[in-house]
Amino acid sequence: MKFIPPMTANQKAWITSNGSWSSWEPWERCSLTCGGGSQSRMRNCTNPPRDWGGERCHGPSRMNQSCNTNHCPVNGGWNGWSPWSICTKTVSGIQIRFRECSNPKPAYGGEHCNGSRALVRECNKISRCHEGNIQMVKSVRVNFNCIG
């Protein structure tokens, strides 16, 4: 075994080791999938670490940035039904009412409203069916089958 004598102050100053940063770690997962989240990444003062009174690493150990700043999809929602229309005939007619997919309107790839935009019902019904049971009401073809 070889004997190593203690170092002098000048020898210690000569072998000091200043700290240096490691490479940045990968970015963490974004906090949100849309609408503006944040993410960070880290680095360590270990390449090499500070030793023998050397200088610490300069600069930040953490970096932050915005991510997924795209708009979130907005799914459509129905507004309320319009009032029923006036009956199309005085005997065995139909009435119709509408609603719009605008509460809210679909946006940024969101889903359109599910379900029907229009409702149809009989009005002024009698027990005997009459001819002419297909009507055009506000540009919507309505096929009404008469049941005896």
Question: What features would you describe in this structure?
Answer:
The structure is a single chain. With about 150 residues, the protein is mostly beta strands. Among the domains are: about 20-70, Thrombospondin type-1 (TSP1) repeat (TSP-1 type 1 repeat), CATH 2.20.100; about 75-125, Thrombospondin type-1 (TSP1) repeat (TSP-1 type 1 repeat, Single Sheet). It is about 5% helix and about 20% strand. The chain is built from one helix and six strands; from the N terminus they run αββββββ. The protein has one helix at about 10-15, and strands at about 35-40, 60-65, 95-100, 120-125, 135, 140-145. Strands 1-2 form a two-stranded antiparallel ribbon. A hairpin with a 2-residue loop joins strand 5 and strand 6.
Instruction: Please report which band the strand proportion falls in: under 5%, 5-15%, 15-25%, 25-35%, 35-45% or over 45%.
Output: 15-25%
**Could you estimate the helical fraction of the residues in percent?**
under 10%
Remind me, CATH topology of the domain at 20-72? TSP-1 type 1 repeat
CATH architecture name of the domain at 20-72: Single Sheet
Q: Roughly what is the average pLDDT, rounded to an integer?
A: 83
Low-confidence stretches: 129-139
Identify the strand order in the major beta sheet: 1-2
The rough form would be described as: rod-shaped
CATH level 1 class label of the domain at 20-72: Mainly Beta
Q: What is the first-to-last residue Cα distance?
A: 114 Å
Indicate the structural class.
mainly beta
Number of strands: 6
CATH homologous group name of the domain at 20-72? Thrombospondin type-1 (TSP1) repeat
Give the helix tally: 1
Biggest sheet record = 2 strands, antiparallel
